[in-house]
Amino acid sequence: MSNQHPNQPFTRYGDKINSDYFEEYLIKTYESRDKAGLTENIEGIEALVVQVEPGVAKAYIAELLLMTLYQYVRSFEDDTYRYHILRIKPENPTMLVREPLTEAHNGIWTLNNMSVNGQKRPFTRYIGEIYGVNDMKEAVSKQEARHFRFLNELPESHSENYVHWTQPSIYTWNHIGYKKTKTEEYDQVKDYEFDQETLDMFLEIKKLQSDLDFAQYLEPYDHLATRVYMHDREHAILEFLSLTSYHFWGAFNIGDQNSSTNVTRSAKYVDERLSPAKVFTANNTPYYTCHIDDLPSPTENFVLDFGRRMHHLAVGVKDGYIGPEENDYRNVDFVVEKLQEAEKQFLANVIGSCDEGLKQIFSKKSEFSWLITEYIQRCYGYEGFFTKENVAALTQAAGEDDLVT
Predict the structure, then answer these.
(1) Half-sphere exposure of 328 (CA within 13 A, CB side)
(2) 240 and 181 in one domain?
(3) 246 & 157 share domain
(4) What is the number of helices (H) and of strands (E) in the chain?
(5) Range in 16-20, 74-78, 170-174, 377-381 the model is least confident about
(6) Exposure string (b/e) for 346-378, b if CB count within 10 Å is 16 or more?
(7) Is the pLDDT of residue 3 over 60?
């Protein structure tokens, strides 16, 4: 369902009713960032940053090498963290896997210890995305003038590889990083090298992926989904749009799961493979009234148990089928079957059909990053991110998995 709201520059989709406040300040947010030159200055996502527990990075890298198109490139350290660079192609977002060099308590430790399950992995968290900017000083000064706060003051002199991070959002606990656009390197103190046994293991994992012959059907990340509280939904979206050049694509109500799925997309990159969509999922009613109305609460239960955080990263699957079309054995079915041969576990079966436009499935959450991997195949040029039936089934399956830690 599409609809054009008054005075809005982007076609809207979905049936979720937003507040008058949201509709008013959505327009004002677009106008404010345009006037400040931020829409023009800020480009798309250039990297994703995921932090894991000390010593866990090589296991998570191996998982990514099997389940995605990423290739391991190299590693480096600064004074606080060790980083591992994974890439697909220069135009696709880089994956940075980060591990702390010490177990000293810090901001990430504090955030994780505010939830019962976060305490079990005190250093594990999706940190945020790095967005390319054409003029760093201008972007930061304009955002500071608009009352946005950063972890540090912008150095008077810095390299083109420098990343400037916002403080964690009070609504999502994710960060936004700015970096000079299209620079592929990162500031570092020294190189870090895995031992040969680990490097050989990485090669063996990519060989296994090749032998299973499913990588030909994979695409880069399609969307990134954060779960937030009901009362934070509109604020999280407006805050994110203020810090990026994304726009609000629309929102769908998932009534039988008491939730809504809210999608934002890049205003500059139509192709999600170049800059994935950002999705925000929230309850429709708060958890504490669900017993009164006999409603489920998988989304808000996740936030209660794990804290505000990224829930899943969705890998695109090329459209197509294997064998006779009437068998409905699609590329995503093959991908999942082959990953199951490699002992990867999934939540339920592939959901949806090409008649509805989408086939999707969630993996079990990673024991290393606590992120779920979604595989999503859009059929016949379907442009949406979900169908109501698919999202309801996926949300229910993920809610059941969240009970297991």
Answers:
(1) 10
(2) no
(3) no
(4) 11, 18
(5) 377-381
(6) bbeebbbebebbbbbbbbebbebbbbbbbbbbb
(7) no
Distant-in-sequence contacts of 328-337, Cβ < 8 A, 24+ apart = 328/353, 328/354, 330/354, 330/359, 330/377, 330/379, 331/217, 331/377, 332/217, 332/359, 332/360, 332/361, 332/375, 332/376, 332/377, 333/359, 334/214, 334/217, 335/214, 335/217, 335/218, 335/375, 336/361, 336/375
| Residues 391, 12: Cα–Cα separation, whole Å | 19
Please indicate, yes or no, if residue 93 is contained in any of the structural domains.
yes
Q: What is the CATH classification number for the domain harbouring 99? A: 3.10.180.10
Exposed, middle or buried, 74 (CB in 10 Å: 0-12/13-18/19+)?
middle
| CA-based end-to-end distance of the chain | 38
pLDDT tens by residue, 298-325: 999 999 999 999 999 999 999 999 998 8
Query: pLDDT grade, residue 328 (50/70/90)?
Result: confident
Which of the four pLDDT bands, split at 50, 70 and 90, describes residue 6? Answer: low
Residue 146 falls in which region: left (phi positive, over 0), alpha (psi -120 to 50) or beta: alpha
Whole-number percent of the chain with pLDDT over 70: 93
What residues make up the domain containing 344? 214-402
